[in-house]
Design brief:
Radius of gyration: 40 Å
Low-confidence stretches: 737-754
Helix content: 25-40%
Mean pLDDT: 86
Shape: extended
Structural class: alpha+beta
Amino acid sequence: MEFPKDKIKGRYTFIKWIFVVLGFAILGKAFYTMTVKSEYWREVAKQRERVNLELKPTRGNLLASNGEVLAASIPEFLMYMDFGTWEKDSARAAKDLKLRDSLFLQNLDSICWGMADIFPDVDAENVRKHLLKGQERRSHSWPLYTAAVLKPEAAKKRKNKKRNQRVTYVQYKDMKSLPFLRRSTGISGFYVDTIPVRKNPFGALARRTVGRFDSCARYGLELSCDSLLAGKSGSYHTQKLMKHLVRVVDVPAIDGYDVMTTIDVDIQDICERVLRDQLEHLVKTSNGQTQEGVVIVLETATGDIKAMTSLSRNPDNSFSENQPLAVGNMYEPGSVFKPMSFLVAMDDGLMDLNSKVDVGRGLYPMYRRVMRDHNWRGGIGYGLINTTDIIKYSSNIGVSVIIDNAYKDDPARFVDGLYRIGIAEDLKIPLDHYHKPYIRRPTKANWSKTALPWMSIGYETQVPPISTVNFYAGVANNGKLFRPRLVKALLRDGKIVKEFPNEVLREQMARPEAIKMIQHCLYEVVHTGLGRRAGSKMFDVSGKTGTAQIWTRAGKSQEYLISFAGYFPSQKPRYACIVCIRKSGTASGGGMCGPVFSKVAESIMAKAHQSEFSSARDTINPFHPQVKAGDIEAGRQVLKQVGVTHQAHFNEYAAETVWGAPDSVTHTISLSPSEELKDSIPNVVGYGLRDALYRLESAGMHVEVRGVGVVVKQSKQAGTTLTPGDTITLTLSPKPKAPKKKPKVQPPVEPVAA
């Protein structure tokens, strides 16, 4: 057959000219767009492209001492639908809306039911009505998650009915996976506003220390470290590339540092829990009103603040951290100040442990005023007592007489001594409302004869709890005084960028002999004095009780600041702690703050204690788990996972199931294959019901069960030929309990004469 060249040639010529015409049409359209329509498309591009936009950095995290997150920035999203169009050309706008409406209505049911699945409080029918309403209005920013889409009972609980509720990243991604919404924003109109939200994984734990950040830093470390956490903003512009609008970064943003604190989450939780329990107990049981409480724990070897909590009473009698009382409470410290007074005198060589004072019956006239001991109403008093007893029984008379006799002619020397031992030091705690101690120096205008004796027992001064506990930490550290550290390092991407080393304020607060004498007095306070309730049966505790009546501008009030400050363990101190409570009515530093100190100390030491059980191991009779016959490859995998030594005498990589039985030897378990087990009835005595059923039914047998517990009997003997379809009866019984041991009868003990 001859090929028809003439006919084919004409067809190819026709197709060629079609492509030529189309090519010229495309070139003409391009030329028309670049010339006649150029201004229009430049205007469209300007509307879509934006310049000099702020590129916000990610705020850094606040971390605990072990790296746990105390505060972090997590994005949340506000969801919107754009039912309108930005096209200025009416024909294009109509075409765009028609296409979008068609796709939207086709997928409306999927969107409604999908949203109801993602959010349990959402009603699908309400979503439908809400979306159709937004489409009717052609809104460019129609909120998706408002009260209008909720179920009736959920809508009643919503306070702000018009507010667009924020959603998490997971919920946003689920919404983005729904039909139609998964398309680009230009087609679906679905878009979100990203809002960085500050979250505290541990809730209100250490709230005043960690601080608060919403639109800006409010207080706490969030405020004091704001410049470090915030980072630096960058800039970007948007540019249309093909069909997409892309972000082009001009100046990259610098994310904030992660700030690592010295806070120990476990110790912080212990302090808050124990203090809150005691405050609520006092509200219910004691007369008067309990207003607030403070607990601070310092690590003596470093000065690190491991926990700091300040709880204030709410109108409903609950307690929460509302004010930074630990660093800003400027009440007079009371009797916890007495060891400071004695340390100055001991350091100056003006007294020692043998110094004595006759305090009589608890009343002592001093410059037309009367100094009273806590037991003055009984009229008994302590009589002639030495230095240790003065601190042990917290005698106001004993302290004031010794200090007044030593410094009345030169009170400035005593005040200089207080500054020398470091109690008046500005600790520069990086928290808002921190106040440094106020200890006034004597001048003619502000000094009287009674100022010195009353200052020596904790009045006429203002010392925040953080300064008081820092003094006791210095005594526990044999006189080496640190500046309390709250921030230890700055991190970026998990790597330390800058460390803040421990700062020593005093290498030696006073002479070592003076420090030893104060340590002895503080030990006796807990073991034989007024601070017994702060002690522990597990380790020794040292410290000092305190009770100070609060004075205001109006004069003496009916409230007291009671406290206990000390350290533990006494021989090798690890932590210093102070407990303060402000209340009216009956008040006792040892009786009310002491138990809090004791519970905190015992809980911290129990947390730090790690028992050593290696000596209790039985090396002669090692324990081996019971391994039954069956699939020994599965048994090998289990033994490998739990770390039990074993030997496998078979091909571990065999494709088929390997049947076999274990043979326990002296120091290991030997797994050996046995082809006989493959076609024989297994021994399931001692199995639990679940394992027995799996083993027998896998072999093709029907199982009948009688009783509960473990298998004690099987109707077909193990090892006999297995016939699939046979029925086997298992008898179960609970594990026998070990017989109770009869208590040994103790022989009668003869009474001992007193």
